[in-house]
Write a structure and sequence with these properties.
α3 runs antiparallel to α4 (66-85), α4 packs antiparallel against α12 and α8 packs parallel to α9. The chain is elongated, with a radius of gyration of 21 Å. The chain is of the alpha/beta class. The protein has an 8-stranded mixed β-sheet with strand order 3-2-4-1-5-6-7-8, with helices on both faces. The longest helix has 20 residues, at 66-85. The chain has 12 helices and 8 strands.
Length: 301
């Protein structure tokens, strides 16, 4: 996972550690590193932020011993990467669900993203995660456009022992989601997970449909699911969905197959929305709560 990004950071540390910490000496090293970041799907604003901050913090530092210099570079990189991954609004999903349960109200998550990102499978993974935490869950088949989408969701629900609320294909997605929330209220179910049709972010009519669903059901969180393997397209998609619909958090899928890793850094920085989970495999248990400190430690080790 993220082998190329890890290799890039390791190479940078090695070069800077043997370079005199003056602006003229650091500039070419950091320029090369910026290109390495871009090649590994790190968006240019993020690459600029990392390199500019590192230059500011290291220039003029006076460190004699090799090991101390290496530690200085790594510590500053760690701090900068954590800043890139930090957002103003941290989301404690389980705490928010617990608060709604205490009010006897269902917590509603609406999942958006384009086709092919693994959105429906991700919903099933989140459902299992919540079941493990002893929350009751109902699924909403509000993707009434893509052939087979409801059956796919129903198959996941069958395996997990969950109920799907659905209408026929072509029905109003907002009505399906609304009915699911009413079902949850009537049966004391803790969490509603709404599956929506995959949208190309540049199809305005279809994006407007998602805006309508959000307006009607007023979800507690809108979760954007994105395939980490698509590189900088992930950033473009995230920006467009956030601008048009308004997202609260992201789930990155297929992270286990991502040798580059730049999407993980870029999506958070560009949208200023936190990553909630990462998908790390094919089975329902292969989903992890995203931990920025663990992530940074992994790519710098």
């Amino acid at each position: 996972m993220f082998e190329k990004l890890k290799s890039g950071f390791k190479g940078l540390v090695a070069k800077v550690t043997t370079t005199e910490l003056k602006a003229d000496n650091l500039a070419p090293v950091l320029f090369d590193f910026k290109m390495t970041l871009a090649e590994n799907d790190v968006a240019f604003p993020v690459a600029d932020k990392i390199c500019d901050e590192l230059e500011k913090r290291l220039t003029g530092s006076s460190v004699k011993r090799f090991d101390d210099r290496k530690e200085l570079v790594e510590d500053n990189l760690r701090q900068i990467l954590l800043e890139v991954l930090e957002t103003n609004n941290r989301i404690d999903l389980l705490e928010q669900i617990s608060e709604k349960r205490q009010k006897a109200e269902p917590f509603v998550l609406m999942f958006v993203g384009i086709n092919g990102t693994g959105k429906t499978t991700t919903i099933a993974k989140v459902a299992r995660f919540l079941q493990e935490k002893k929350y009751s869950v109902v699924l909403s088949g509000a993707d009434t456009y893509r052939a087979g989408s409801i059956e796919q969701l129903e198959e996941h629900a069958r395996r997990l022992g969950l109920r799907v609320i659905k209408h026929t294909y072509g029905a109003d997605p907002a009505a399906v989601a609304f009915d699911t929330i009413n079902h949850a209220k009537a049966h004391g179910i803790n969490v509603v997970l709404i599956d929506t049709a995959g949208r190309m972010q540049n199809n305005q009519n279809l994006m407007n449909e998602l805006v309508k669903v959000k307006r009607v059901v007023k979800p507690d969180l809108v979760i954007f699911t994105v395939d980490s393997l698509i590189g900088n397209d992930a950033v473009m998609q995230a920006e467009e969905f956030n601008k048009t619909i308004g997202i609260d958090a992201t789930i990155l899928t297929k992270v286990d197959a991502d040798v580059k890793g730049g999407s993980s850094l870029s999506v958070t920085y560009v949208t200023q929305k936190p990553i909630l989970f990462i998908g790390v495999g094919q089975t329902y248990k292969d989903i992890e709560v995203f931990d920025p400190e663990k992530f940074v430690k992994m790519i710098l080790r």
